[in-house]
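Try this one yourself first.
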């Protein structure tokens, strides 16, 4: 390797003089031939992030990052040193004090510009760009260069990042559902005809718009995916489709009102009639389960089904909706565990944080929580604007709170926009939000950390 001869001469002279002072004529001093970094780390660092004060003002919070949780790897073959897990977004790496160990007797230099300067472990280093270190062997016959990178997330992992795409032309959105590896948007075109626009899940949406055959217009909002087919209630009967386009009768004469749960986890569907709840494992034959409970929701329904976090063998089925066709008053939240027979309503009588009463209320199971949003309505007795906030329940639908977060919120462009919309959360951890009217667009949102590899 090319040697820095001024540095080499100074270092070698120092080592030679030191060795001469402790040796006799009969002693042979053998200096180490190694130039190797054996461990590397950094001291704790400061990080900053946006938040809100108790009065709702935007503020910056500074915290200390314990860097022991971010170990560094040393690739001796390439001379690269780096942390596999990036430090949190907002971490300041402009003044970093390092912890480094070397094998053998070595002098350490840091490449500041084009030259190498003597380095002290008490000095701080700017790691906003990768830096080079040079390790000299004690025998002055060899040196090794290392490039050190202190990686920091460039994206805030907790930010719900929204990307806006062109609208699906000519459709008033009514239902979005993932099906057969695609996202399906059901709606009504300008002539009042049912249509479905289909796009691949990944990447920028590319829509193919086709007419829907065999299904009445009144049933689009209740379409559910169950065991490889789509199902919907129309005219008291249950219809199914294997391609989202062509629908046929699946079960007739049941006086069906709405699908209230459809769980692939449990392999079971529930349908409400005027008198009771029916259950099916194949979407064609139904068994009577129980009379229709009082206050059971049948309108503006949001459904979710997912395993319990502490026991994946037990499935929780969630149902949020309204008890009247006008969808007025407070929405109600019902739940059923696969280990129990009956559906249970959460009593919000003494709950200061009930489910928000929003027009076109949409509730999604996302990132292990329930997320609610919608048009104008009331929250905790106060009127709120359309898309004014994102409300989160972390206890499966009992307590609902405004995220109050600088990072978890709806697209800023939609705040106050009273528009038609449909939404869904897909298996790639994206939220799809399709809006109509003057704010017609397709939005895809993801919490950044869910997209990290």
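Now uncover the answer:
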């Amino acid at each position: 390797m090319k040697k820095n001869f001024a540095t080499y001469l100074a270092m070698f002279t120092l080592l030679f003089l030191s060795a001469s002072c402790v040796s006799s004529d009969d002693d042979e001093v053998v200096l180490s031939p190694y130039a190797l970094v054996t461990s590397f780390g950094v001291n704790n660092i400061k990080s900053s992030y946006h938040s809100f004060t108790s009065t709702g003002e935007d503020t910056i919070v500074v915290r200390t990052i314990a860097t022991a949780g971010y170990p560094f790897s040393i690739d001796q073959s390439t001379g690269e040193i780096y942390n596999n897990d990036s430090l949190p977004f907002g971490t300041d790496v402009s003044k970093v004090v390092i912890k480094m160990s070397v094998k053998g007797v070595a002098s350490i230099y840091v490449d500041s510009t084009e030259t190498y300067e003597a380095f002290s472990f008490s000095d701080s280093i700017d790691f906003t760009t990768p830096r080079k270190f040079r390790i000299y062997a004690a025998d002055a016959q060899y040196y090794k260069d290392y490039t050190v990178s202190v990686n920091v997330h460039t994206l805030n992992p907790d930010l719900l990042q929204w990307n806006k795409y062109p609208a699906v032309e000519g459709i008033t959105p009514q239902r979005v559902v993932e099906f057969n590896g695609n996202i399906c948007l059901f709606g009504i075109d300008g002539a009042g005809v049912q249509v479905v626009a289909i796009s691949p899940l990944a990447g920028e949406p590319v829509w193919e718009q086709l007419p829907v055959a065999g299904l009445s217009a009144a049933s689009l909002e209740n379409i559910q995916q169950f065991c490889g087919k789509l199902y919907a209630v129309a005219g008291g009967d249950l219809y199914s489709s294997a391609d989202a386009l062509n629908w046929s009768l699946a079960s007739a004469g049941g006086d069906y009102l709405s699908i209230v749960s459809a769980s692939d986890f449990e392999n079971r569907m529930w349908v409400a009639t005027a008198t009771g709840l029916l259950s099916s494992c194949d979407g064609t034959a139904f068994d009577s389960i129980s009379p229709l409970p009082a206050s059971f929701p049948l309108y503006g329904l949001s459904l979710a089904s997912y395993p319990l976090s502490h026991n994946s063998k037990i499935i929780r089925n969630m149902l949020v909706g309204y008890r009247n066709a006008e969808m007025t008053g407070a929405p109600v939240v019902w739940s059923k565990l696969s280990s129990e027979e009956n559906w249970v309503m959460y009593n919000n009588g003494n709950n200061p944080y009930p489910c928000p009463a929003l027009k076109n209320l949409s509730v999604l199971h996302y990132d292990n929580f329930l997320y609610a949003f919608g048009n104008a309505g009331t929250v905790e007795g106060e009127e709120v604007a359309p898309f004014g906030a994102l409300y989160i329940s972390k206890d499966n639908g009992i307590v609902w709170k405004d995220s109050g977060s600088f990072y978890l919120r709806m697209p800023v462009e939609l705040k106050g926009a009273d528009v038609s919309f449909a939404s869904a959360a897909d298996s790639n951890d994206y939220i799809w939000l399709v809006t109509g009217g003057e704010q017609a667009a397709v939005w895809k949102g993801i919490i950044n950390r869910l997209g990290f590899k």
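Discussion: The two ends are 37 Å apart (CA to CA). The longest helix spans residues 5-21.
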